[in-house]
Request: fold
Amino acid sequence: MASTNYWRPLARFFGPGGILDMAGLSGPILPQMATSSPPDNQSSTPAWSSDDLSSDPHVREDKAGKVQKMFAAIAGSYDLNNRVHSFGLDQRWRRKVVRLAGDLSGKHVLDVACGTGDLAEAFAASGPEHVEGIDFTPEMLDIARERPSRPHSCPISWRVGDAMDLDVPSQSVDVVSIAFGLRNVLEPEKALSEFRRVLRPDGKLLILEFSEPSNPFIRGCNRLYTNHIMPVTASLIARDRSGAYRYLPKSVETFLSRASIESALVASGFSKVTQIPMTFGVCVAYLAQVD
Ligand SMILES: C[S@@+](CC[C@H](N)C(=O)[O-])C[C@H]1O[C@@H](n2cnc3c(N)ncnc32)[C@H](O)[C@@H]1O
Reply:
């Protein structure tokens, strides 16, 4: 599992269309790797300028368009950056979310803001009947669709859609999940209402989202890393000029607090909300249930 998790993003980075191609080296060295070309994000105007990020990005009316443009620009190196900059913990966090869902046999899982499909794939390998991944950035879904189907995994279907207006019948889904997506949605409360609408009675919502550690020392170290180190190294890996890796820490610091997310869940009709902090509270899983 671990080697597969690293291999695919590495292959995309080093293979055709990747960094060695740019140096004219990939053909003879790595002829077998299945990859996609990265987007030409060298010439595009940034999705997020320094000026944009001097204030709260969540209150901007044009947030959705900027978020979409940013993920389109970084899709090709998104998985590799996740593995490298979380030191591999991101997949562990996703597997924890899958375990929190409990017994998945015969269940229908809807992974919203699925991106390149890591969480949907982790669910599919854990026994449900069907997994559906929805995202509003086609470039992220293109990477998800490249995933080779794993033995013992259930089918996954991928489609373009908006978390705030799901084209999914009411009370038709057993588990809704959203990993690192709620913070990127224009109106998170609207998305939570949609999740409540599509869930069956006894259904579960699982949210995975970054947070600020409560311990001041750990919070300081985390801010140093996410504000000053990661934006440089991640932008280099992604050859990114969209501003994605400066938006990331700013969007975490200005997003709803853990208490506000819990209140929003209750206001949307969820009960029994549980928070599960992970890795010193850098990341939090929220489990919310429908009565
Ligand atoms: C940080 S990525 C997370 C991807 C994936 N869930 C993961 O665990 O890596 C956030 C994703 O949210 C998607 N997104 C943001 N707003 C959305 C919306 N309103 N509807 C659907 N997808 C959205 C973006 O396109 C992007 O793929």
About this structure: The chain has two domains: 1-38, 51-291. The radius of gyration is 19 Å.
